[in-house]
Amino acid sequence: MTSPSELLPLRPASPSRRTALAWASAACLGGLVGPLSAAPAAAPAGEPIRLALIEGLSGPFANAGEAVARNLQWAVERVNARGGVKLPGGARPLALVRMDSKGSTEEALGLLRSAADQRISVVMQGNSSATAAALIDALGKHNQREPERRIVFLNYSAVEPSLTNEKCSPWHFRFDAHADMRLNALTDVLQGDRSIQRVYLIGQDYSFGQQVLRSSREMLAAKRPDLKIVGEELHPIGRVKDFLPYANKIKASGAQAVITGNWGNDLTFLVKAARDVGFEGKFYTFYGNALGVPGALGDAGVGRVLAVAEWHPNAGNRASEALVAAFHQRFPDPREDYLHVRMQVMVEMAAQAMERSRSTEAAAVARALSGASYDGRGLGGLGAGTMRAADHQFQQPMYVSLMQRAGSEGVKFDVEGSGYGFRTVRYLEAQQAAMPHRCSMPPLP
């Protein structure tokens, strides 16, 4: 069971900090909240609407889990700062319930049962596609068996494509671009870099990592048939502490670029090892713009590390800059500098779905989310996004960005106090980033 203390904010704010947070949140949300001159809304007094975060908050990927928890906690605080979720019985605050899966799928399934026992109708998870697949399957069975305790699953980063294709579910909603969408954007950039003739593929040995390597081969064959794949490697997920043998193989292969979907410490340790052996090629990554990677590479990463995401701090508009400033005010420690707009959007859209459906019941929320659009131009300049009803894959813009020194052109903000940030090298509108689906969506009961 979850203890009452786990319902508290990660780092309680003082009254002055809470006031500043409410004002900063209003500034970031622009027209969605009201003008900055308006006073913060009164705190909602109703029973909290609990959102369960099932994630590895300890273990080998604890840093990634805690980074997600900070984003979601801030999103919850911002909804509450404007008055909470407005329902027929009165406004109710959101409350984040932290559930530590320790990076284990079996633990996650146990926590799903705990959430059901507590009658929590919304669960969130993302830092493992294998875990997400297990949760989708378990939820389908649970919701059919116990309709009075149904649960909807919000996914912020489990990006294995089958989750919104062959394994799609009316109870599952993905707010991150799936792996093939991300990889398609990355390989578009690589396609135009004719200086690269040899590439190395490396990934984590589970469904997501295997998919990235498989799709990399297919996309490179179609876009750059002249390019040679000089190495391909899958390694155990979360268990490798010394990546020097892998880095030496990459260097010895003569590769000029590496493509990897690695995340968390598996990415940080890999790029550190590559730096230590003197590898001078480029890294085409899904997550190279956070969790210690820029600081680990230092100058060796300038102009050589690319990342792909729905947003980044130097997206280049006033709304984006206001959002970054407000996040830094809430989490001033550079080690906690991990802001992702999709996690903010996910909580915002869930709150809006509850308000539209006038309910927190899972099926009602799912119906309101399916096909819903979100105008995020006031939220970090995200642009418009839509939860595609046919597969529950969120359609949104994407950025490919390149590591540079902070203060250089297009790089106002650095990452984690490292002195290095990212500038946009390719921007895709939502319709450009979209890909066909293979989902046959079952109807909601």
From TrEMBL:
Keyword Nucleotidyltransferase part of the UniProt annotation: no
Leader sequence segment: 1-38
Residue stretches making up the Leucine-binding protein domain: 48-401
Top-level taxon: Bacteria
Keyword Amino-acid biosynthesis included in the entry's annotation: no
Alphabetically ordered keywords of this record: Signal
Pfam families reported in the protein's UniProt record: Peripla_BP_6 (PF13458)
PROSITE patterns membership: TAT
Entry similarity comment: Belongs to the leucine-binding protein family.
PANTHER family cross-referenced by the UniProt entry: LEUCINE-SPECIFIC-BINDING PROTEIN, PERIPLASMIC BINDING PROTEIN OF ABC TRANSPORTER FOR NATURAL AMINO ACIDS
The name this protein goes by in its record: Amino acid/amide ABC transporter substrate-binding protein (HAAT family)
Species name: Sphaerotilus hippei
Lineage, top ranks: Bacteria, Pseudomonadati, Pseudomonadota, Betaproteobacteria, Burkholderiales
